[in-house]
Design goal:
Blueprint (H helix, E strand, L loop, with lengths): L20 E5 L6 H14 L7 E5 L2 H10 L6 E4 L16 H6 L4 E4 L2 H6 L4 H13 L3 E6 L3 H5 L3 H12 L5 H6 L1 E4 L13 H18 L2 H6 L1 E5 L4 H8 L7 E3 L6 H9 L3
Parallel strand pairs: 1-2, 1-8, 2-3, 3-4, 4-5, 5-6, 6-7, 7-8
Length: 267
Amino acid sequence: MEKSLDFYFSKKESLAVRKPIVAGNWKMNKTIADALKLVEGIKQLFKDEQKVDVVLCPPFTALADVGEAIKDTELYLGAQNMHAEKSGAFTGEVAADMLRDLGCHYVILGHSERRQYFKETDEIVNKKAKAALAAGLHPIVCVGELLAEREAGRMEAVVGTQVRGSLAGLSANDMLKTVIAYEPVWAIGTGKTASPAQAQEVHAFIRKVLKEKFDEPVAQSVRIQYGGSVKPSNAKDLFHQPDIDGGLIGGASLEAQSFVDIVRGAL
Ligand code: PEP
């Protein structure tokens, strides 16, 4: 099945109609055989693809096989990272065109683990986002504050700087193809979820930053996911906040039933 890279809303619809998007970030988990078992489980359980974009982000080693397994479905393939350069002497790295070659439509950029362990800065994330867009990929750009930053009342300063820096120089058209994932670092893999009200507050703030950078229609059209210990039990409340358009899911995306239950929270 040819999956269109066209923007997700019909040109006839209002700019503010945002289709929810739920992505599973499998991180450094799953052999190819395990990845294929998970995909089969998801395919069997989930039948409402028209209503929510579902993106599977396996490790690089399983991208080709997972891509093959979902090619006749409406599930999308995403990668967890890429290099900003097109090609060259960057041992161990993978370029945007290579991900497109494998059938990827999305790529996660600037995940807090990349920022923390691999020292990725907003500048690096920005270069990667531009390279991804140039190759026809939709970047999922992650932002989020540390607990100490939140407690010091610096949440808006930190998230605002990350949004402005990571998205610097993008055209409005590029921005519309980009997804933002708000992931408070203190909620990732910790079991501590932001309350729906806490998450909504930051999502609304991110739209305010987008409005300053672009305009109201762009701010209202960009999809912003929440990520951080999303589970079947809290997904619906989070995803039904007015400025939250689905989620980026780590641990709970490694098991078909919990991932699909979370995806259903976005319906
Ligand atoms: C993530 O790593 O993007 C994430 C949200 O992880 P978890 O759902 O496990 O908190």
